[in-house]
Amino acid sequence: MARRPSPSAGAQGTPPDAPSPTPEILTGLEAIRAHGGRDEELRIDAGGFFEEAFMTERLVTAEDGVRLIKKVEQLVRSSLEYKTYIGHLRQDVGLNRCSFFPNVNVATGEVGLEMHHAPLTLYQLVEVILNHRLAQGHAVTSLTIADEVMQAHYAGLVGLVPLTETAHELVHAGALTLSAHMVHGDWVGLLRAYPLGVDQALLEQLQAFVEVTEERVIQAAAKLDSSQPRLREGMRVPGSDELRLLMMQAGGM
Hints:
By secondary structure, the protein is mainly alpha-helical. Helices cover 44% and strands 6% of the residues.
C-alpha cells in the first residue's frame, strides 16, 4: 500500500522525479493515522480491497456492498484497536467468564474466550453504519467505515456476549440460545445513532430477539450440561413498544 509516484518531470534534459520510497505497509486502522485519514490517496494491491484510489458515495450493485462490508470486517478484526478493546473488556470491564460456562478457567489460556456480537453481528453493524453514511450522501471507503465501527465499539454502542470457543460455535449452530439480558453494550443506542441504516427486516429480527425468554435460554443450556446462563445486571433491554416505535420511524424514512 503506497502513495502514487509523482508524474511530473524535472527540467528539460533531466529524468523525471524518482518516486518516493515506498512506506512501510500498514494494516487495519493504523493506516488511517499514518496517512492522516486521506485514504482516498491510497493504493492497495490486489490482495486488498482496492487496486486504485477509490471513494464512493453509492454502491452500484449488491455485490459491491457485500464485498465492502466483508473488507471492513477484516480491517476491524485485524486492527490493533480491536485487540486492545477486547483486552479492555476482559481486564477492566470484567467480561472474563463465559456466559454459559462461568466456572471454566479461561485465565490459563487453555480455553479461549471470545466476544460474540449480538444481537447485531459485526457484519450487520458495519452494514448499518455504512448505509447510514451513504443515505446522508457521505463519500466512504472501507477505512473510514472501519474507523467509525471501532468508534462505536469504544463508545459502548455494540452488543457483546463473552463465550468460550466451544460455546461460541454452539451459538452459531443454534444449539445455545442467547437472551437480551446476557448482552453487554447499548445496542439500542446504536440504532438511534444510525437510524438511516436500519431497515424493517433488522428491526423484526431484534423484536424476536428481545422476546426470547429466560426459560428458553436455560432449557437449551441444560441439554448441554451448562450451569445456569449468566444474566447481566443493569443491562437495559428495550421493550416491544420501544422497538415498534423504532420500526415505525424506520418505515417512515
